[in-house]
Amino acid sequence: MQNRAKIQRPLFEYLILTAIFFLLVAILPANTSVMQDYGLSTHQYHILLFLVELPLAAVWFAAFFGYARLSQYAASVSNTAEGRGYEKLARGFKWLAFGLVIPSIVSLIVNAIADKHPNFHATAIITSNYLTVFFALVAFSIISNASRTLNHYKKQPDGLVSNKSILLLFVTLAVAFCYLIFRHVAIAAGITSSDNPYYLPIWLLMVTLVIPFLYAWFVGLLAAYDLGQLAKHSKGVLYKQAVHLLAGGVSIVIASLIAIQFLRSVIPRTGHVSLNLVLVTIYLIYIVNVIGFAMISVSASRLKRIEDI
Amino acid sequence: MSEDHASLYQKVVRITNVYLGPAADRFVTRQVQNHLHKPAEELSVGDLEKLIDWIRVAVSMLTEDTEIIEEYTTQLRRLIKVADKHSS
């Protein structure tokens, strides 16, 4: 009974949030600049927006299903040594799933307001950026904490920064991110100038967007690494196979989300739909993302079956 | 006597640990309780044959790798042989 609730509740949350999102797609006023750019009528605009956003429903389903399966497994091992770690991991994936949907819903609303009231445009962009970084920070921090808890239980040597390839990957990512972000910013205008596509003074952009994103990605990469270590050192052939799949899925999800957040940050938001190469690239990354969530679902099911039989 | 029974249970768990890792203890306890209808600590040599049959069925649901299943049940069967040797 409790197990069924563990899977039903996330799926119910998914249905409600997705319904709200697509209702907003249908009823919010059409964006005038998109209609002009692509020569669309209001009706055509709504169809275009629906089609562009439709793949997101599949991504969100994969995310909520993954979180549901993890919650189910975490509940089945709640009284064991590794239970706390898996409970935290499930909670992290809950934030990750909500972090995919909530910013999209809020963006739709604030961008619709900004279209009618141009003075609100900056607020809309800032809100969307801050929501994305907030959810990334919370979700990746909890997942990282979970993987450390699981590794602590396994009594593995501290994996923190012991792998130089993680550090190299992160430094490369950070340098590229800073370069691509500050390319859009007129640094000569002064540190307090907010004359940039992020509508934030440079110091605030640095402190509240760039650094939090880099921190979130760093803990995300560490979480992936720690889970990889957990899988490597796990005992039990069948258990290890499932944990390997879980670690692989988590790594793919974290890497693909970092890639999407990276792209969405270095190519500033416009506040409306743009049919361009960036959109296609993001769709391709979302496919990888779905594969990662599917791997998590399958592995959590396998782990759960070990506890059920 | 009770120490002997406990150690037999521990031996089964130790073998199971190679296949199910941290879930081994819980898995064996469940098999004994659900199929032999007794507390895991009261597992006796006489129960092993039946337990191994149930474990074979359970593990077949977890993997299709017959090599793993065979290896696992062979390890468990060794416990019966060792026990027989001791009793004779």
Give an overview in words.
The complex is a heterodimer of chains A (309) and B (88). Chain A has nine helices and no strands. Chain A has 309 residues and is mostly helical. The mean pLDDT of chain A is 91. Chain B contains four helices and no strands. The model of chain B is unreliable at 1-5 (pLDDT under 50). Chain B has one domain. Chain B is mainly α. The chains are: A mainly alpha (309), B mainly alpha (88). The A-B interface holds A 77, 80-82, 234-240, 302-303, 305-307, 309 and B 17-24, 26-27, 30, 58-59, 61-63, 68.
Short descriptors:
heterodimer, A: mainly alpha, 9 helices, B: about 90 residues, 4 helices, about 0% strand
Overview in brief:
The complex is a heterodimer of chains A (309) and B (88). Chain A is mainly α.
Q: How many β strands of chain B by DSSP?
A: 0
The portion of residues assigned to helices of chain B is: over 70%
Largest interface comes to:
A-B, 17 and 17 residues
Radius of gyration of chain A: 21 Å
Q: Based on Cα principal axes, name the global outline of chain B.
A: globular
The main β sheet of chain A shows up as: none
SSE string of chain A: HHHHHHHHH
First-residue to last-residue Cα separation of chain B? 17 Å
Tally of individual domains of chain B = 1
The number of helical segments of chain A is 9
**Individual helix count of chain B:** 4
Q: Structural class, from secondary structure content of chain A?
A: mainly alpha
Shape of chain A: globular
The total domain count of chain A is: 1
Which blocks of ≥5 consecutive residues of chain B have pLDDT under 50? 1-5
The radius of gyration computed from the alpha-carbon positions of chain B, rounded to a whole number of angstroms, is 12 Å
What is the chains' assembly state? Answer: heterodimer
